[in-house]
Design brief:
By secondary structure, the chain is mainly alpha-helical. It has a single domain, classed as hpI Integrase, Chain A (Orthogonal Bundle). Helix content is 47%, strand content 10%. The protein has 11 helices and 9 strands. A 3-stranded antiparallel beta sheet has the order 5-6-7, with no helix packed on it. A hairpin with a 2-residue loop joins strand 8 and strand 9. Helix 3 runs antiparallel to helix 4.
Length: 238
């Protein structure tokens, strides 16, 4: 992954964004926007602040159609290969931000298409399958990652131009991706985990299976997905 310094002339100053921990071209407006976002992240709980009421209900997840728009928008960013793989993995495996940024290269088994999901908060860690489109996205990112000497030496799967990804960087990237996707509500990273739960429930999967997949110790945390799944009510009038 080429850094911005490699394409700027030696005489051109490079400023650092305090939020996403990456170097930026000398644009005062862009830098001010990023740093204002950093101040906002530090001063409030992003997860609760971004949960809005849309059409009379709390919007704390993305539908499958909205998720497709979100993932397509992730590809269009400056680091689209990385961001697309990162957002897809977060969604497909229902990851918390802390779990996402903690994924190591050693957690991947590309030969068998498996990912070891190391859960936090005392949740159940499991080996999970990697779907074909997800595997292609990971391989594309690994190829790009290998071109950057510093990134290639990192044990972490996802890195920025300045080192391992941070919680603040993911918060920023999710918000920017939602903006490019033109979603009419704020999006925070934990919504990807909720989106995974609702998507699995809408497939009609067993609550216990979803519980284990998401790593919930308490099944009550899982039942909120299955109780409201539309698929549960299909066929009532047949």
């Amino acid at each position: 992954m080429k850094t911005i310094q490699s394409v700027l002339s030696a005489s051109e100053p490079v400023t650092e964004c305090t939020l996403c921990n990456e170097s930026l071209p000398p644009s005062p407006a862009k830098l001010a926007l990023c740093n204002a976002g950093a101040a906002t992240v530090k001063s409030r709980n992003v997860k609760s602040a971004a949960t809005e009421v849309v059409d009379g209900r709390r919007k704390d997840f993305l539908t499958e159609a909205e998720m497709r728009r979100f993932l397509a928008a992730a590809r269009s960013g400056r680091h689209g290969t990385r961001d697309y793989a990162m957002m897809m993995i977060a969604y497909r495996h229902g990851l918390r931000v802390s779990e996402l940024i903690d994924i190591r290269i050693s957690d991947l088994d590309l030969a068998t298409a498996r990912l070891f999901v190391r859960r936090k908060k005392g949740s159940l860690s499991t080996n999970q399958p990697i779907e074909g489109d997800e595997l292609r996205a990971i391989r594309a990112w690994l190829r790009e990652r290998s071109l950057d000497t510093d990134a290639a030496c990192s044990p972490y799967l996802f890195v920025s131009e300045r080192g391992p990804m941070t919680r603040q960087a993911v918060n920023y990237l999710v918000g920017e991706t939602a903006r490019r996707a033109k979603l009419p509500f704020a999006v925070h990273p934990h919504m990807l985990r909720h989106s995974c739960g609702f998507a699995l429930a809408n497939k009609g999967l067993d609550t216990r299976l979803i519980q284990d997949f998401l790593g919930h110790r308490n099944i009550q945390h899982t039942s909120k997905y299955t109780r409201t799944a539309a698929s549960r009510f299909e066929g009532l009038w047949r």
